[in-house]
Amino acid sequence: MKRSTQAMALAGALHYSFSLPASGHVAHPGYSGAISTPIADVLQEGSVALSFSWLDGPDTYLRAPMTNRIYAVTAGVLPNLEVSMRLTEMVGWYDPTVPGVTYGNDRMFSAKYQLPLHDPLPRIAIGMQDIASANLLAGLVKDDPREYYGHSTIYGVLGNTTGPWSWHIGIAYSQKFINGLFGSLRLQLSPRLGFTVEHDSQHLNYGLQLSPHPFFTLQIGQIGRATWGASSTLIFRL
After folding, report:
1. I need a labelling partner for 116 at 20 to 30 A (CA). Which of 3, 65, 104, 237 fits?
2. Measured between alpha carbons, how far is residue 5 from residues 10, 11, 45, 199 in Å?
């Protein structure tokens, strides 16, 4: 009887965790976003997103044109506040001091805060990517094209949703990532299918999103002219 009660409690907890929708779609850098760029939404408090992305082509996230494998954990830790932790593996990177290792790792922490505004005002969020790492000073201060680092980014973005359309536009400062105006437009074709187009201040990107269940999303997209990416996101509530 005790085991049966425990099993029922576990089943109920899992049903609760995976049946309630959570706002926000995770972009490959780890924050809630479109394809590469952030959006004005944040994950709801108590929501957690686990995501994996694969980028291949001349415009990958780090050490282009090396293939990138990106693992991220994003959480709504407080009302209107989300934090992200990301690990990127750069396939093909060799360190002569570590024989046999064929990829390098980069770790990142970021945060985004959505202003507590209400309808009919648009949503507004501010954030910083790569807050604490060796990338910080190179990303915001140094301007040396030989520098590999430089993905630290400060940004602000506003957006809104009207029917099946969602739009977001913002401005960011970074030496090597989003630098200048950016924006995205998403069309929700059906509850399970969406299409996104974005400009990341450098490239025009496209993505198709498939959600077989509210807590799970698959995305395939093109970044620039020749870089392809695929990602999966599992999102649940604690």
Report:
1. 237
2. 9, 10, 29, 52
Pairwise CA distance, residues 130 & 151, whole Å: 7
Please state the pTM of the whole predicted model.
Answer: 0.82
- The terminus-to-terminus CA distance of the chain in angstroms comes to 26
Q: How far apart are CA 197 and CA 195, in angstroms?
A: 7
| Integer CA distances (angstroms), 225 to 162, 201, 204, 222, in order | 30, 14, 8, 7
Provide the CATH number for the domain around residue 232: 2.40.160.40
Over the stretch 28-61, which tens digit does the pLDDT of each residue have?
A: 888 999 999 999 999 999 999 999 999 998 888 7
Per residue in 183-228, pLDDT tens?
999 999 999 999 999 999 999 999 999 999 888 999 999 998 889 9
**196, 222 Cβ separation under 8 angstroms:** no
Containing structural domain, residue 47: 2-237
- The SS3 of residue 50 is strand
Amino acid making up residue 206: Y
- With b meaning 16 or more CB within 10 Å and e meaning fewer, what string describes 207-225? bebebeeebebebebbbbe
